[in-house]
Amino acid sequence: MAETADALISIPETFAYWLQAGRIDVGFLGGAQIDKFANINSTVIGNYDNPTTRLPGAGGAPEIAASAKQVMVIMRQSVRSFVERCDFRTSVGHGSGPGDRQRFGLLGEGPRWVITDLGILEPDPSSSELTMVAVQPGVTRDQVSSATGWA
């Protein structure tokens, strides 16, 4: 990709000058788990000290989740990945609900869309809880419910 680029920047410059300075409009993330407030886990499944699965980890995801103006999450939807509460919170979505992002001093709006193989979820304006706003063609309400770890 760099072969034909006009410029290259380092990872520290990407974070400090572009991301943390609020110059990134939309960040794209995925993870092993996402909870009802769009917090993402890409660190461990199970207890941190004795996990059933150790995952690749954070990379730059926490910075993207904290500082991009908006975030789009793309994941396959299943009850294993769409959980009531993440086993580990790698990247903050909307914390535990309204106002948490501001209390934590996060710059961006946080996850605005969660795109899955079943549909599109967005945070509810009053509760910050993810709600299904559109389903993919041929997907039923029962399929969505059975693939989601919260009501």
Q: What would you say this structure looks like, in words?
A:
The protein is of the alpha/beta class and 151 residues long. 18% of the residues lie in helices and 26% in strands. The protein has helices at residues 11-19, 61-67, 100-104, 141-146, and strands at 26-29, 33-35, 40-41, 44-46, 51-54, 70-74, 82-83, 111-115, 119-123, 130-135. A five-stranded mixed sheet has the order 1-6-8-9-10, with helices on one face. Strand 8 (111-115) and strand 9 (119-123) form a beta hairpin. The termini are far apart. The model has no long low-confidence stretch (mean pLDDT 95).
Give the tally of β-strands. Answer: 10
What's the end-to-end separation, in Å? 43 Å
Main sheet overview: 5 strands, mixed
H-E order = HEEEEEHEEHEEEH
Which strand order do you get reading across the main beta sheet? 1-6-8-9-10
Measured as a percent range, the helix fraction is: 10-25%
Mean pLDDT: 95
